[in-house]
């Protein structure tokens, strides 16, 4: 039984926005300002990040309309380069790409809820939300809730996802609107102020800062994972990719204007909680409490989106005997990937209780950039390798758009190797570990 095409244009756009807007935008700018010491560079990096994400989305759109199947870059790498690269992208996705973010988002969600309850002196609640064991247990409950939400039906799950994403967008727009209403025009100078001299030795850290920005843009390719369920994919997928990334980029740039203008640099430089700091500076102490509960709502949407997207990759792998075949089964009653969703749920719960999910995300940041780059390189290869394929959509300004994505992404990865050598080397090691796993799987399972 195959997945049904029942997700429309607006659901696809909302899935991308839901997958992209998470904690990254509310935790990154202060740290980047601390690294670069220059607000203008910070704003420029967020704009460049949007360009990189859009170039990736436009490139993926051509691949997605040629092969409109669930699974994202796993499908493209298999078609263009063969089984091993496809297996490795699925290997990384299974180990950390989707499961670890589900775990981290759910744990952060509970922490923000605890902050809210502490501020309103709800001691009967904080007795649980403030306890590490209960924090993890509640986080697991959230994961289980969304797993079964997406098990009971694609349409039901996507409807809930849409509602959460609309709430998320409304919160972000309300924050931007209220921020611009309160902001004083005298703070405009903070958008281009510099607080130190950029030296040659610190230039790699600018590349690293762009990589940090791209963490917030992660998810620009989200619609390709559900391409097999999008109605009229040849027409809708390019629109979904373009508008999902464009809307998110605009929101990110406006948010950063509000963040940087809200208060002096010393208050936000090197700080994770820039969103809460900006809210407090703009609207007063009560606002930071309200901000905690809104971040929790934003994270609900992120957990749901990740639980929706990840199983589609495992489904595509299982169809090709790259992983346990049961993960390719579509439940006849619900029309959903019950086994694949349950697998992701179990792995995410393990990460929650082991406490290692955030570490995995940090260490695997390098590896998660490898396969999108390889997929966009695959677009160029596919033009030469499969010239006769029907292309209902072609990447605009080809080859400038894919080359822009490839070059800037490689610069970011080189910067990561220079500045985060140990973590990047660990990521490469885990990626390479997938090679012997692939050959053992092929010998013991596929070739029997």
Write the layout of secondary structure elements.
Layout: H1 9-20, H2 24-27, H3 29-36, H4 39-66, H5 73-81, H6 83-97, H7 99-119, H8 123-129, H9 132-151, H10 154-182, H11 203-217, H12 222-225, H13 233-262, H14 265-268, H15 274-283, H16 285-319, H17 338-354, H18 357-385, H19 400-419, H20 421-446
Helix pairs in contact: 1-10, 1-13, 1-16, 3-11, 4-11, 4-13, 4-18, 4-19, 5-6, 5-18, 6-16, 6-18, 6-20, 7-8, 7-9, 7-16, 7-17, 7-18, 9-10, 9-16, 9-17, 10-13, 10-16, 11-19, 13-15, 15-16, 16-17, 18-19, 18-20, 19-20
Word description of this protein:
- The chain is mostly helical and 448 residues long.
- The chain has a single domain (9-446), classed as Amino acid/polyamine transporter I, CATH 1.20.1740.
- It has 20 helices and no strands.
- The protein has helices at residues 9-20, 24-27, 29-36, 39-66, 73-81, 83-97, 99-119, 123-129, 132-151, 154-182, 203-217, 222-225, 233-262, 265-268, 274-283, 285-319, 338-354, 357-385, 400-419, 421-446.
- α7 packs across α18.
- The chain is globular.
- The protein starts with 8 loop residues before the first helix and ends with a helix.
Number of helices: 20
**What's the gyration radius in Å?**
21 Å
Largest sheet: none
Overall helicity: over 70%
Total strand count, please? 0
Q: Pairing-aware structural class of the strands and helices? A: mainly alpha
C-alpha geometry: globular
Please write the string of helix (H) and strand (E) elements. HHHHHHHHHHHHHHHHHHHH
Top CATH class: Mainly Alpha
The CATH architecture comes to: Up-down Bundle
Low-confidence stretches: none
CATH homolog superfamily = Amino acid/polyamine transporter I
